[in-house]
Amino acid sequence: MPHIWGVRTTWRTVGDGEFFCPGCGGDRSYLRRIGRHRFALLGIPLLPRGTAGTVVECAACRTCFRTDVLGHPTTTRFSAMVRDAVHTVALAVLAAGKEGIDGSGTALTIELHEVLDPLAPHLAPAGSEDILLQGARIALADGPYTPSEHQTLATVGRALLLSHEDTERLLAIAARTPS
C-alpha cells in the first residue's frame, strides 16, 4: 500500500562547477544543491518542514558530498600546483646559491610560501619529501650547501609541513648520495 503522507526532501540547484569526485576518483562536473524537507501528501510536497542543508552532487555518479569536498583541487589544478612548486623551489635554490644577493631572502621566502602553502595539505609525505630532495640535488650540483641554500631548503621544508628533524635528515641523505 503506498504512503499517503510523509516527509519528502526537495532539492534546488544553486550552482555548478568542476571538482575532484572522491566517489568516481576523477575530475567531474558537480551541482551545488540546497535541500528542504516538506510534508508530502500523496507524494506531493506541500508544507515546509526545515532545511536539509547544502550538498555537492557529482553529475557522473550522482553521489552527494559535503561542501568541504570543493576545497580539494581538481587533478588538473593539483598538477599545475606541483609543477609551480618544483619550478619555484628550483629558482629559489639557484638564487640562494648565487653570491652577493642582497635583500632577496625575504622575497624568496614569501614566494615559496605563496606557492607551497596551498599545496602542502594535499601532498602525501613522500611528495613533500620529493620536492625538498629535488631542491637539495640542485643545491648540491656545485658543491656542499651554502648557508643561504641551506636556509632556503629549511624554508621549503617548513612550507611543505615537514618537521625540522625530517628536513635535516633528508638534506643529510641528499648530501651523502652521489649525484
What this model shows, in words?
- By secondary structure, the protein is an alpha+beta fold.
- It is 45% helix and 28% strand.
- The chain has helices spanning 75-97, 104-119, 125-140, 147-159, 164-176; strands at residues 5-21, 26-41, 44-58, 64-65.
- A four-stranded antiparallel sheet has the order 1-2-3-4, with no helix packed on it.
- α1 (75-97) packs antiparallel against α4.
- The longest helix is centred in the middle third of the chain and has 23 residues, at 75-97.
- The model has no long low-confidence stretch (mean pLDDT 89).
What portion of the residues fall into strands of 2 or more residues?
25-35%
What oligomeric state do the depicted chains represent?
single chain
Strand numbers in spatial order across the main sheet: 1-2-3-4
Which runs of at least 5 residues are low in confidence (pLDDT < 50)?
A: none
- Name the helicity range: 40-55%
Total beta-strand segments: 4
DSSP summary: helix tally: 5
Question: What is the H-and-E element order?
Answer: EEEEHHHHH
Coarse morphology: rod-shaped
Q: Keyphrases for this structure?
A:
179 residues, alpha+beta
Question: TL;DR?
Answer:
This protein has helices spanning about 75-95, 105-120, 125-140, 145-160, 165-175; strands spanning about 5-20, 25-40, 45-60, 65. It contains 5 helices and 4 strands, in the order E-E-E-E-H-H-H-H-H.
Question: What's the layout of helices and strands?
Answer:
Blueprint: E1 5-21, E2 26-41, E3 44-58, E4 64-65, H1 75-97, H2 104-119, H3 125-140, H4 147-159, H5 164-176
Antiparallel strand pairs: 1-2, 2-3, 3-4
Helix pairs in contact: 1-2, 1-3, 1-4, 2-4, 3-4, 3-5, 4-5
